[in-house]
Amino acid sequence: MDTLIPEAEWRESAACLQYPAVLFFGQDDSESPAERRAREARAKRICSTCSVRDECLDYALRTKEAYGIWGGLTELERKTRLRRGFL
User: Which of 9, 33, 60, 65 has its CA 20 to 30 A from that of 40?
Assistant: First the structure.
């Protein structure tokens, strides 16, 4: 089983740390579909510049993270990837 220490190490280098978590997870269900798409697009742009994007996505896929943008993918994109057997 993997330890939490390596995960903590990559997280310290994540580009998202300098932004509010709401950008990656949303505030609540009251945002419109257009607002959600715009927020997610902004979060994905940040992820695209991140030096630990692969580690982040790997973590989210392994733990089946149910919420938020991780490694540049939304919840639905990660579920699709898992269904297709990409881990």
Answer: 9
pLDDT digits (tens, 9 = 90+) for 59-76: 999 999 999 999 999 999
Rounded Cα distance, 45 and 85, in Å: 25
Three-class DSSP labels, 20-50: CCHHHHCCCCCCCHHHHHHHHHHHHHHHHCC
- CA–CA gap between residue 48 and residue 69 (Å, rounded): 12
Please name the residue that has the structure tokens 């943008």. 69
Total residues found in the chain within this entry: 87
Q: What CA–CA distance (Å, rounded) separates 7 from 62?
A: 12
For the cut 60, the answer to whether the pLDDT of residue 1 exceeds it is no
pTM (two decimals) = 0.85
Three-state secondary-structure class, residue 11: helix
Helix (H, G, I), strand (E, B) or coil at 18: helix
